[in-house]
Design goal:
This protein is α+β, with helices and mostly antiparallel strands. It has a single domain, classed as Alpha-Beta Plaits (2-Layer Sandwich), CATH 3.30.70.560. Helices cover 28% and strands 30% of the residues. The chain contains 4 helices and 10 strands. The strands form 3 sheets. Strands 1, 2, 3, 4, 5 and 10 form a 6-stranded antiparallel beta sheet that branches. Strands 6-7 form a two-stranded antiparallel sheet. A two-stranded antiparallel ribbon has the order 8-9. The longest helix has 14 residues. The protein is globular and about 40 Å long. The relative contact order is 0.22. The chain binds 7,8-dihydro-7,7-dimethyl-6-hydroxypterin (ROI).
C-alpha cells in the first residue's frame, strides 16, 4: 500500500458540490481507501483573474494502484463530472491532481510527482499541512515550512 495525496479544485458549476462528489467517487476506487479529507479552502484564482474564486481541498489516501492507474481513475472522475478539456489556466468544473505518491519522484510525459507547482500554492500546502502536519514533500521540504514562506493570508476556510 502507498500513501498518496490528491489535490481537488473547482471554480464553476457549484464548486463545493463538485469537490464533495469527487470525494465520494474517490472512496469508490478499487484497492483504495480515503484516510482523511481536509477542510474546503476558498481563494482567488492563480492565473487569469477574470474567473470565479476556487474551492480547493486535499485528500489523503492509501492505495494498491500504480501511479498511472491512479491517474486514470482521476481522469475518469474528472470526465464523469463533466470536465471539458481545459483552456490553459482557465475555469474548471473539477481538477484532480496526484500531489504526492509515497516518496516517489516521477517525471514523465503523463505525470510529474510531486506536483510541479506545489511549493508555490497555499491552496495545496495549507490543506496538506492540515491533514498531515509533518508532511514531507520529496525534493521540496515540509509542507508547513513551505507554507510559512509563502503565507496563507489569501485563503479562507469555508464550511
Ligand atoms: N487557482 C486557485 N486558487 N485554485 C486552483 O485550484 C487553481 N487551479 C488552476 C489555476 C487556473 C492555475 N488556478 C487556480 O489550474
Amino acid at each position: 500500500m502507498t500513501i498518496a495525496f490528491i489535490g481537488l479544485g473547482s471554480n464553476i458549476k457549484l464548486p463545493k458540490q463538485q469537490i464533495k462528489s469527487a470525494i465520494k467517487s474517490i472512496e469508490g476506487i478499487a484497492l483504495t481507501q480515503v484516510l482523511k479529507v481536509s477542510s474546503l479552502y476558498k481563494s482567488k484564482p492563480i492565473g487569469p483573474q477574470n474567473q470565479n474564486d476556487y474551492i480547493n481541498a486535499v485528500a489523503k489516501i492509501d492505495t494498491d494502484l500504480m501511479p498511472l492507474e491512479l491517474l486514470e481513475c482521476m481522469q475518469d472522475i474528472e470526465n464523469q463530472q463533466g470536465r471539458i478539456r481545459k483552456e490553459h489556466w482557465g475555469p474548471r468544473t473539477l481538477d484532480l491532481d496526484i500531489l504526492m505518491f509515497g516518496e516517489e519522484i516521477i517525471k514523465d510525459d503523463k505525470l510529474t510527482i510531486p506536483h510541479a507547482e506545489i511549493e508555490n500554492r497555499s491552496f495545496v500546502l495549507a490543506p496538506l499541512a492540515e491533514i498531515d502536519p509533518n508532511c514531507l514533500i520529496p525534493d521540496k521540504g515540509m509542507a508547513r515550512d513551505l507554507l510559512a514562506i509563502i503565507g496563507q493570508e489569501d485563503l479562507e476556510i469555508i464550511r
